[in-house]
Amino acid sequence: MTSIAHSVGNPCERCIAVFQQFTSKVQGFTVRILNKRHAALTCGFTKKLDSSGTLQARALKGSERAASRIARSVAAVIGIALFMPMSHASSGSIDAIQPKHYIRLLLPNNQANCLIRLYGKESAFDSSAVGNLKGKFHTYGIPQLKNALIAGLPANKQIDYGIKYINHRYKGNACKAWSHWIRKGWH
């Protein structure tokens, strides 16, 4: 599971990849707008108002400019946002990623949803949580493991250990761990 997190790359590479995906979506959106506009003009107005097509050409030229202007504005805002310093994430550390986002980076969507529900019930994503206070062994951290050493670790490391535990006990299926928690109140 951890190998997936390492394949994400450094934050700059990830930002560039996200920006490229967004740019291609904006371009696709622009093409769809132009196609819809073109279809409306050809069936509704060209036959009645302008047989030579100049009205259509002007309308398409205007909408193309407007769509291009919007796309440039959105791209500029995203570009500026990518280079703005963030309060605690500017170092590029993996520790700066919120626990739920970190889980979504590591696991497929359905497994991530189960694990997020489980950890939400177990510790409410509190990395300093201590549970089972009346029992023989206390449980610690986000995944509520019995090892006290986990209590001092950053949230992402706690999640890594929790996923290792789920891999060992539930053969990597976080939904089985969630089902067990629903039935028994522990996992």
Short descriptors:
187 residues, mainly alpha, 2 domains, two-stranded antiparallel sheet, 8 helices, elongated
Q: What does this molecule look like?
A:
With 187 residues, the protein is mainly alpha-helical. The chain folds into two domains: 75 residues, no CATH class; 89 residues, no CATH class. Strands 1-2 form a two-stranded antiparallel sheet. A hairpin with a 7-residue loop joins strand 1 and strand 2. It is elongated, with a radius of gyration of 25 Å. The two termini are 19 Å apart. The N terminus is likely disordered.
**Helix share, percent:** 55-70%
Uncertain spans: 1-8, 37-50
Output the radius of gyration. Answer: 25 Å
Biggest sheet layout: 2 strands, antiparallel
Order of helices and strands: HHHHHHEEHH
Q: What is the 3D shape?
A: elongated
Widest beta sheet: strand line-up: 1-2
Mean pLDDT: 76
- Helix-strand category: mainly alpha
Number of strands: 2
What is the number of helical segments per DSSP (H or I, 4+ residues)?
8
Number of domains: 2
> Strand share of the residues?
under 5%
How far apart lie the N and C ends? 19 Å
